[in-house]
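RECORD TYPE: inverse folding
INPUT: structure tokens
STRUCTURE:
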């Protein structure tokens, strides 16, 4: 379920409070020691003071939501007191209205909600552009306010809701392999490089088999489709296209994003052992992996991993163009150490990873279109972060969706066993 191809290591918010299912997964696999926890802070670059950062520090001694409120009140560089007060008043209905209020805000973009609540525009510019880009790779004029409120709820309700950890190395080896080993230790099989090419149907419209791109045919009692939503839509059988459950998927469309990795010839000084919000128009969050992540640790050379977003206009541009634009932005974050023409730090190598359709774009009014895991087709189930679950399009959401899917299959076990028996009987007659 987790992408094997992407080399991202950011794990925002994976704490007992905020990412409980991911935490459980790490615990069950016995790999908790692979999470490198960072200080409980959020650190933002200051565009009008190049090279400077502003911090929100969440004190350990205070319970939530006091630690979050304290962090906001103590930060005077990004928001003025009148702005903080107006923002707090704007947020009051969310605090009092709880989950029903949060869900009702799905119809509004972040920008529209801020305007409706009388929150000064500068609050969006200073804080929510960065947050929107980090959460869904888009700007506040597009992002559904529900998405921000879900994240804020986590920050304010859980003591460690905004604490971050990095995986200590590349996800395929450090996270996916233990999952594979676990499945195999229980008698399961994992087939790599075996994409579903076609969903073949029985006469009654239920699934007969999955045809794979290597020619293999997979038959089973229950079928779980755990690809991104765009792939499901591409492979959806014609007979199913008129079913409202599947028709609603049209609104869910993956958002483009680009991941940039740059290895420099020297150690950059103006950085932290943390995820940083760049607040640059082209970039979202970034980190110096030579500091934050064991596998890339180096005392002499920095390796920056950056999320380039929104990427709509850049996804078809050349890697050279993207690196040049990234360097121009980095020159503002590291004015003494990086210049766009590489007359200061020099690039040793780089990777540009383009994902034209990543997590679904959380624009207003998407929530009713997210499917539950049990489809109306008997024996066919969905899993993935876009399916219905209370977290955002995130690793936590993906893991929870897998659990909900498994739960639905267990609930249907009798029905599935009967289907299995019929299938076996039919096969033996043929
Ligand atoms: C750049 C980037 C950074 C991110 N950072 C974070 C982060 O720091 N924290 C966080 O919580 N989330 C992060 N996310 C989001 C997170 O990666 C997703 O929410 C999560 O991976 C979704 O899991 P999933 O199982 O739903 O889908 P995926 O992880 O996309 O898994 C779907 C799988 O389906 C496979 N597949 C595709 N087509 C087929 C086919 N035809 N047949 C069979 N298999 C197929 C794919 O190869 C893939 O392995 C990030 C996403 C991106 C793009």
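DESIGNED SEQUENCE:
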């Amino acid at each position: 379920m987790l992408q094997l191809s992407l080399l991202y290591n950011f794990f925002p918010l994976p704490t007992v409070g905020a990412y409980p299912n991911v935490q459980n997964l790490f615990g069950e696999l016995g790999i908790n020691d692979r999470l490198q926890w960072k200080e409980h802070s959020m650190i933002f670059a200051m565009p009008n003071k190049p090279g400077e950062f502003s911090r929100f520090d969440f004190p350990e001694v205070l319970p939530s939501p006091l630690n979050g409120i304290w962090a906001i009140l103590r930060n005077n560089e990004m928001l003025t007191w009148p702005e903080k007060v107006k923002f707090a008043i704007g947020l009051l209905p969310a605090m009092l209205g709880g989950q029903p209020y949060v869900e009702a805000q799905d119809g509004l973009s972040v920008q529209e909600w801020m305007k409706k609540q009388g929150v000064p525009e500068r609050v969006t510019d200073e804080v929510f552009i960065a947050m929107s880009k980090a959460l869904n790779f888009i700007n506040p004029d597009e992002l559904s306010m529900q998405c921000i409120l879900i994240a804020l709820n986590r920050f304010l309700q859980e003591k460690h809701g905004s604490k971050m950890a990095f995986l200590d190395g590349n996800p395929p080896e450090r996270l996916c392999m233990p999952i594979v080993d676990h499945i195999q230790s229980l008698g399961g099989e994992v087939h790599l490089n075996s994409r579903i090419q076609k969903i073949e149907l029985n006469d009654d419209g239920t699934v007969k088999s999955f045809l794979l791109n290597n020619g293999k045919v997979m038959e089973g009692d229950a079928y779980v489709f755990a690809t991104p939503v765009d792939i499901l839509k591409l492979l959806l059988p014609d007979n199913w296209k008129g079913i409202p459950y599947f028709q609603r998927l049209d609104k869910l469309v993956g958002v483009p994003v680009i991941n940039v990795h740059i290895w420099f010839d020297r150690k950059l000084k103006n950085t932290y052992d943390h995820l940083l919000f760049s607040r640059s128009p082209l970039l979202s969050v970034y980190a110096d992996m030579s500091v934050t992540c064991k596998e890339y640790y180096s005392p002499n050379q920095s390796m920056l991993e950056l999320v380039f977003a929104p990427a709509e206009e850049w996804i078809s541009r050349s890697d050279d163009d993207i690196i040049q634009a990234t360097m121009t932005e980095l020159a503002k974050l590291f004015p003494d150490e990086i210049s766009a023409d590489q007359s200061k730090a020099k690039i040793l190598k780089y990777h540009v990873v383009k994902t034209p359709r990543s997590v679904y774009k959380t624009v207003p009014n998407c929530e009713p279109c997210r499917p539950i895991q049990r489809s109306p087709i008997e024996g066919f189930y969905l899993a993935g972060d876009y399916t219905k679950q209370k977290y955002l399009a995130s690793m936590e959401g993906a893991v929870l969706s897998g659990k909900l899917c498994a739960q639905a299959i267990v609930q249907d076990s009798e029905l599935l066993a009967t289907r299995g028996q019929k299938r076996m009987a039919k096969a033996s007659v043929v």
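NOTES: The radius of gyration is 23 Å.
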